[in-house]
Amino acid sequence: MVVVYCPTCDRRTLMGLDEVEWVHNLAPGVISVSGHCPQGHPAVLLTGAAFYRVCRPIP
Ligand SMILES: [Zn+2]
């Protein structure tokens, strides 16, 4: 499961991996995951190693 944000519903929602339509490597460590929210709106998630490096707390 991945969490995606739908700007139309203005909420985050869970998307199963079988609902993912596209996965694009935008840049090294940056991955775009595309699908639809439960209401059918297009929703996109940006993830990848680059985001984890940014978001990981400094030890
Ligand atoms: Zn939606």
Number of helices: 1
Order of helices and strands: EEEEEH
The ligands bound in this entry are: zinc ion
Would you identify the regions where 5 or more consecutive residues have pLDDT less than 50? none
Mean pLDDT: 85
Q: What is the radius of gyration?
A: 12 Å
* Structural class estimated from helices and strands: mainly beta
What would the principal axes of the Cα set say about the shape? globular
**What is the CA-CA span between the terminal residues?**
28 Å
How would a crystallographer describe the biggest sheet?
3 strands, antiparallel
List its traits.
59 residues, mainly beta, two-stranded antiparallel sheet, 1 helix, 49% strand, binds zinc ion
What does this structure look like?
The chain has one helix at 49-55, and strands at residues 2-6, 11-15, 22-27, 30-36, 42-47. It is mainly beta and 59 residues long. The chain has one domain. The strands form two sheets. The protein has a three-stranded antiparallel sheet with strand order 3-4-5. A two-stranded antiparallel ribbon has the order 1-2. A hairpin with a 2-residue loop joins strand 3 (22-27) and strand 4 (30-36). It is globular. The chain binds zinc ion. Zinc ion binds next to loops.
Briefly say what this structure is.
The chain is mostly beta strands and 59 residues long. The protein has one domain (2-55).
List the helices and strands and how they pair.
Elements: E1 2-6, E2 11-15, E3 22-27, E4 30-36, E5 42-47, H1 49-55
Antiparallel strand pairs: 1-2, 3-4, 4-5
The chain binds zinc ion (ZN).
